[in-house]
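Hey, can you fold this one?
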Amino acid sequence: MPYNCFDIDYIDRIAHITFNRAEKFNSFTPQFWAELPKAINEISDAGEARVIVLSAKGKHFTAGMDISVFMEGDLVSKSGNNHIDAEAFRYQVATLQDSFSALENARQPVLAAIQGGTVGAGVDLISACDCRYATKDAFFCIQETAIGMTADVGTFPRLAKIIPEGWARQMAYTAERLPASKAKEIGLINELYESHDQMLDGVMEIASRIAAHSPLAVTGCKALINYARDHTTQDCLDYVGLWNASMLSADDIRESYVAKSEKRPAQYDKLKAIKK
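Sure. Predicted structure:
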């Protein structure tokens, strides 16, 4: 289905989502928060795509939360009862959090291709992606602190598990701009590119390499990495044993070896569509 805040193209088993509001620096409007999880969940459930790539048109990847979000709905509505307002606010924030959790919960890896600024809620978004790539002019900023609030859509539970905790704290406390070079040095960014075009070519090439592998194996990697992040080593060892006991595919292993010996691309079954 068509979306207003981004375009979606399918290229050789890769779902490429492009934020298309360049004139507004791809800020996240109320419509965006509704559209993104819908699109991600549809791609994940269908199982046709093997990788999801996020990119953006224009000078900046995203300016973060659009001001309209603060002007509409339960984030600002006042009933006269502080407790009633607080409960509604908490529910609304949980809805926003779920929008980015969809990226983490997708069956496919999600790769972010970033140029220019990634500000505020943009950091929440990229923290929920599997891998991040950027142009050398990119920068990252937890802007919420500078406008008198604490980031609440996913930065803190994720960012400090991607980069050293001290850097996550410094970014949060100071609201400073973290340049792409430092982001690469501390592990926020996998690779830097000279230009937007070079970055997209590079990210799509990485996505193609992922898409060439067994979808069952790749979705298992994502599930286990996410699980390992939040559990003990022993818990993860138990879980991966159970995972492979139930989902290890002898057919995929056999096809991998046969395809290599025959010098051809391997052919794997796609993930089964999930009907909800």
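The mean pLDDT is 95. Let me know if you want another pass with a different chain boundary.
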